[in-house]
User: What shape does this take?
Amino acid sequence: MPQPCPEAVHKKSGVSVSLERNPELGEGDDDVEENPEEGPSVVPCSRPEGPVPVEEVRSSDWRTAVDFTPPGPGIEFDSSISGVQNPPETPTAVNCFKMFLSVETVGEIVEETNRYASEQQGKTAIGVIGKLSKWVPTCLNEVYTFLAIALLMGLVRKSTLREYWSTDPVLLTPFFASVFSQDRFLNLLRCLHFVNPAHADTRDPLNKIRNVFNALTSAFKRSFIPYKGPVCGRIPDVVEGSSGISAIYP
Assistant: This one.
């Protein structure tokens, strides 16, 4: 007959109870409240005996897979064409960024963002003054700048969005306020849209970002052809003689 473990679930109450006897209680007292008609009812459970082995993974286990062949038919690597494809003549940060988020893609974002903002302004009751009342149509350069600032926020971390415009000397980061006012950035964030819902396929779980997702996927395919044996793993990095920093190496 299976023995109940010290912690079991009472069938009727669903509450976890302890079946170990409390030393402060007498011989006739139990920690489990019994139903005088049905008696105590518990669900037996089992526990594995002995410690559970844990496989150790060391950074030295990572190695370059020179003979790696990806699954799937018809996939062949040609080292003569691997690497960056069609790099810009002037490889500035902006030009490299536009390799992935093209002017056409960002232009669609501009159009949909302006459309959504106008739609929301039309829903505002007459006489109501809010942040959106200050909205003016955005443009290509402003949306590119907005996306760059959003990426920069991933590097300069704050507790809230409003802290990026804080004048507190402890939190002050003047660069953000020099590019956008707080109200303008929050309005752009509020109205940022990628696709018109009237033209979206609601059966697609990514319907709100499908066009941008497809554009990014195609851009990565156009811009880089992988080599045969890339391996990504965490290995310890040594910086100025001090270890303990982990980095991703392709």
In short: The chain is about 30% helix and 10% strand.
